[in-house]
């Protein structure tokens, strides 16, 4: 496996492309918008510069990593000759099903199709293709260049061979792959999102303020980041989407999103990406609020 395509140049997509390229793989980074590709490359460059500053890599490694990435706005040009495609588009079922239907028609028969979804059924995504045995979940954590975990999610039809291949590939990236089965939220978000939702409920019910809730969880439970600040980093719209997937999948009211979360998303207060969520991410506060990201 030598050539990788990554679909989507956003936060997760550019991070995934960065990690593959830094480990010597040729990467085709695909997005429908050239502006998104330019922004993604700028983010990769900035993160490589941070690694140089911390003496993790040198300038030559940075240049080699960037040279391994080629950008495309045309899906067919970007994926037709690749060995693995990792989809990291918006967490929306209809969008993902359409992407996988297109990938199945374009890619070589032996190409493995992976998705970075954090909650959507791998089985359902695989059913949109004629190769469900070659469809698998690769759920990277944010920020991808730093976080070690990759959830490897087997759909109902995912083959043992494909699972083993992706587990070994993840290890070659310096990651720690953990195999899980295909149920709503998998492991990470099935546990994390109810905690975040309960933190929002605690705020909604007036038990304590934002900073107080986060302080209790950081100092009392040794979490590196409070749940409300973490929600801001994930994106409140993404948190809402994941909770809705779990609520729809389990029909259990414990996964129903808090009304405050719903209202904040409707108001466009999505966290870091919009400049405001539970915290203020204006320029004067940005350094303070995101200083933990690359510790």
TrEMBL record:
Pfam hit, one: 3HCDH_N
Name of this chain's protein: 3-hydroxybutyryl-CoA dehydrogenase
EC number: 1.1.1.157
UniProt cross-references to NCBIfam families, sorted A to Z: PRK05808.1
UniProt binding sites for NAD(+): 8-13, 31, 91, 96, 118, 142, 273
Gene3D superfamilies: N-(1-d-carboxylethyl)-l-norvaline Dehydrogenase, domain 2, NAD(P)-binding Rossmann-like Domain
Family label: Belongs to the 3-hydroxyacyl-CoA dehydrogenase family.
Site (Important for catalytic activity): 139
GO molecular function, one term: 3-hydroxybutyryl-CoA dehydrogenase activity
3-hydroxyacyl-CoA dehydrogenase C-terminal domain segment(s): 185-281
Broad EC category: oxidoreductase
């Amino acid at each position: 496996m030598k050539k990788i395509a990554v679909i989507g140049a956003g936060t997760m997509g550019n991070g995934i492309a960065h990690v593959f390229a830094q480990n010597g793989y040729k990467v085709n980074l695909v997005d429908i918008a050239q502006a998104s590709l330019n922004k993604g490359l700028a983010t990769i460059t900035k993160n490589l510069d941070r690694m140089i500053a911390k003496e993790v890599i040198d300038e030559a490694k940075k240049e080699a990593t960037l040279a391994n990435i080629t950008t495309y706005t045309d899906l067919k040009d970007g994926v037709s000759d690749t060995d693995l495609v990792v989809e990291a588009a918006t967490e929306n079922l209809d969008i993902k099903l359409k992407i996988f239907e297109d990938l199945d028609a374009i890619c070589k028969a032996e190409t493995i199709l992976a998705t970075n979804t954090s909650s959507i059924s791998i089985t359902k995504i695989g059913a949109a293709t004629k190769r469900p045995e070659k469809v698998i979940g690769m759920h990277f954590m944010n920020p991808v260049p730093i976080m070690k975990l990759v959830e490897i999610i087997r759909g109902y039809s995912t083959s043992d061979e494909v699972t083993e291949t992706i587990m070994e590939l993840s290890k070659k990236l310096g990651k720690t792959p953990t195999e899980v089965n295909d149920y709503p939220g998998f492991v990470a978000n099935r546990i994390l999102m109810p905690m975040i939702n309960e933190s929002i409920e605690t705020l909604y019910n007036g038990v304590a303020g934002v900073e107080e809730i986060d302080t209790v969880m950081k100092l009392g439970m040794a979490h590196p980041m409070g749940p409300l600040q973490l929600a801001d980093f994930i994106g409140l719209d993404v948190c809402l989407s994941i909770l809705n997937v779990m609520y729809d999948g389990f029909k259990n009211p414990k996964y129903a999103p808090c009304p405050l979360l719903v209202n904040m998303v409707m108001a466009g207060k999505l966290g870091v990406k919009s400049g405001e969520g539970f915290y203020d991410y204006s320029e004067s506060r940005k350094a303070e609020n995101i200083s933990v990201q690359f510790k």
